[in-house]
Specification:
This protein has four helices and six strands; from the N terminus they run H-H-H-E-E-E-E-E-E-H. The protein is an alpha+beta fold.
């Protein structure tokens, strides 16, 4: 009988932990599209993004900017605490910015081989840092005092 009870208990514990969904997963729905797969892929083509409207991928406090220029160019990004620049002239641009604050006002400057520069203001927002650190809660159990007495 005990063996059966333990199997039942293990079954309940296993399925109650493996089926648990985070609150955000339970409340969001998947993104759907009626467009074909090729149309969906075309949406992310870098050729569709320019310096005035770059594709910005934010992950934590890091952002990657991607865009294409009409001709070969060097690119720089500047703010009060950030200065990043590319060294080669190219049309497909990709820059990664680390250690971003919650809201970042940046100036993106594109300089062509002929020396013509054009600047664009860009705002990048990241997720706010958690105000509270999650600490595990440690509690005494009925076994704790007896274990301490024997040590």
């Amino acid at each position: 009988m005990k063996k059966r009870f333990y199997k039942f208990l293990l079954f309940i514990l296993f399925f109650s932990t493996s089926v648990h969904l985070p609150v955000s997963a339970a409340t969001t729905s998947p993104t759907t599209s009626h467009e074909s797969a090729d149309d969906f892929i075309d949406m992310f083509e870098i050729d569709n993004y320019t310096a005035a409207n770059p594709y910005i991928l934010v992950n934590g406090n890091t952002a990657t900017l991607m865009f294409t220029t009409a001709e070969d160019a060097k690119v720089s990004i500047r703010s009060s605490s950030i200065h990043i620049k590319t060294t080669n002239y190219t049309q497909d641009q990709e820059l990664t910015i680390n250690r971003l604050a919650e809201t970042n006002q940046l100036i993106l400057t594109v300089t062509t081989k002929s020396g013509i520069s054009r600047s664009y203001p860009i705002t990048i927002k990241t997720m706010p840092k958690s105000k509270h650190k999650v600490m595990p809660k440690i509690t005494d159990t009925a076994l704790s005092p007896s274990r301490r007495a024997h040590s």
